[in-house]
């Protein structure tokens, strides 16, 4: 795959440099001089605008408009030692001060972080326009009112509707040690519809659907899209209302395409990040070239996918994103790397250096992580199970990201009897570890789907936007918590 080439984005660069008293060449000169003896490092400048509207129980509980933050960080690293300083004011004095403080931290503290508060690309993976543009505030409020009324018209047992809208526009400017200047505009917009229903006995359940990704407000407020999402949310709520409690025990499990790959993300993906493996604390440490999964399993992290939620033109260190095959036909091929860990492990960075904001240093993180599709028809996978459980939708849970041990909640499932989906069940908990899961995969479907609207990953106190996906997958002998058979 050809590398993406950077090109100038003069309008965004002007926004970053405005009022600083610096031009691009002056900024680059200070940064490059500050990094001349470094193994790695960068200048990272960020401007972020955001807005949010939430209507619940017929009232607007959140109206947050015009939120903005901006600032820059300067990092210099040698081996395992890192100096970092950031500021929410950008000018020549603050930049030179940050360079000096970061270098001082590097020389004297050997790894602590100073927090003194003092190119566009040619192949566009997502729109460069501001995702909040195209609709006035009045039009957005009117659209939310319209959605609420539409949802209420769908059923007599709907007891509450919550409509949430969030959008943000993040612009980043990165200068690398060789003086390369990279600029990107990263849009995000989301619409969540949550519906509560009740039955004659007073039991209640809630279903929800989310639209969004690297898109604009016009996309998430599209009438056809929000009506389909509302019907799906209501269907989930109504199904949960009649669902039985899930059984417990060892079972054959079929995981639905798409969002259930959150299990892959949590229980497997984190263990394949470079920092855990450099320190030897992952179950995958030292196993490159070894068989760690069933032959049907190929796991990929790919940050350069068109229009996907976790995609970036380049990571937060300025490395172009790419397709990284982590496990191929069951064999571990490599790890996700930022510049620091790649340097220390004597491998190339993979475009996985990510940070929450300019206040944070980057570390290896996922982008779009997924199982590659196999050869099986999803219906054949279900038909192959005599007695088991089909997981339609996953919720949250607890995961030890180095060992891969997990306790994940299934939002909705169905019993499989004699190869057919039967009664819906709820309350299932999947218990185990990621290594055992990928070793126990028996069939992989041909219906790969990536989650477009959901996925925020937390690690070491930082949150970043990610996506995960998979085709339909059959796993043998998973432990299910629920009621006893």
Tally of structural domains: 2
Strand order of the largest sheet: 3-2-1-4-5-6
Query: Approximately what portion of the residues adopt beta-strand conformation?
Result: 35-45%
- The number of strands is 25
The secondary structure category is alpha+beta
Termini Cα gap: 52 Å
Oligomeric state of the chains? single chain
Poorly predicted residue ranges: 1-8, 110-122
Major β-sheet annotation: 6 strands, antiparallel
Helix content: 10-25%
Mean pLDDT, nearest integer? 93
Shape: globular
- In DSSP terms (H or I, runs of 4 or more residues), the helix count works out at 11
Describe this structure in words.
The chain is an alpha+beta fold and 485 residues long. It folds into two domains: 10-242, PmbA/TldD fold; 247-484, no CATH class. Helix content is 22%, strand content 39%. It has helices spanning 10-17, 24-34, 92-108, 137-152, 217-220, 223-242, 262-269, 274-278, 339-345, 378-383, 434-439; strands at residues 40-56, 59-78, 81-87, 158-175, 181-198, 204-213, 244-245, 247-255, 299-302, 323-328, 331-332, 353-354, 363-364, 368-371, 387-399, 405-417, 420-426, 429-433, 441-444, 449-450, 456-459, 462-465, 467-470, 473-481, 483-484. The protein has a six-stranded antiparallel β-sheet with strand order 3-2-1-4-5-6. Strands 11-10-9-14-23-20 form a six-stranded mixed β-sheet. The protein has a five-stranded mixed barrel with strand order 8-15-16-18-24. The longest helix has 20 residues, at 223-242. The radius of gyration is 24 Å and the shape is globular.
